[in-house]
């Protein structure tokens, strides 16, 4: 699928970074002409993504600097290790380098409160894009420095190679991209917007080895965040009563009912109507409920035991209604794992 995105910048009285191939110019415009990526892949495939761009600079004096290019993808794909980006342009060719998490993002206190690193500041601004599960990260790259002058038009391409499914899981996910200035960062002021964010349709990755599907693309009645965690991690049970038609829509109180399985095969069931199992509505009338638990304590296991899986339902206060996976009689299921 192709995405045509045009961004026009006003004349800037301060130095604005043109965001393709690292340009810092007082006034410029840039356009992502086309983004091509596949929408199906197998776990372990290296997919090719191509970004065509045009940059027009209209101000003296010439300036030099880097572009920041970020991609949103599942944490388990280990994007820093499994992504390479090269570019060609009428100004020259080069390779982008991954920015370490230790580097504070540009933008100053107004546009990077708290002095966050690039991934954290991007997540603060853009969240998880058009996805519904939190286990995603922004992986950030910097171009080489290039100098641009006045009244110049530059054409070029970014060539991205991304290995998908490094965690072995099937996944449906909407990748997202942000281009911004290495000098200015995620700045918006009276002179313009110094970044561009754009989003793609759902990419389906199949052929995994774990038997699990993480569906970032679809609203979920019930999920556990993060979707990859161990029994000693704090986890959040989430129920969205409005994600699909179900008999708990409109309920003002919902409860957890579930059974955990230990490594040695023991089953432990929690089935009670109490504060222990009650989920809290995130906002009044939202229909979205959640509860944070420490699984080891919640299921009262011993120091020598280890939880490996969990199956559960969400019920009303009288237990007369219970909702399972996709509003079926099947329970929601979760495996405790770190990958």
From TrEMBL:
Q: Which InterPro entries match?
A: DUF4961
- Superkingdom of the source species: Bacteria
Looking up Pfam families in the UniProt record yields: DUF4961
Question: What keywords does the record list, in alphabetical order?
Answer: Membrane, Transmembrane, Transmembrane helix
Q: Does the keyword Transmembrane apply?
A: yes
* Membrane-crossing residue ranges in chain numbering: 12-32
Protein name as it appears in the record: DUF4961 domain-containing protein
The lineage, from the top, is:
Bacteria, Pseudomonadati, Bacteroidota, Sphingobacteriia, Sphingobacteriales
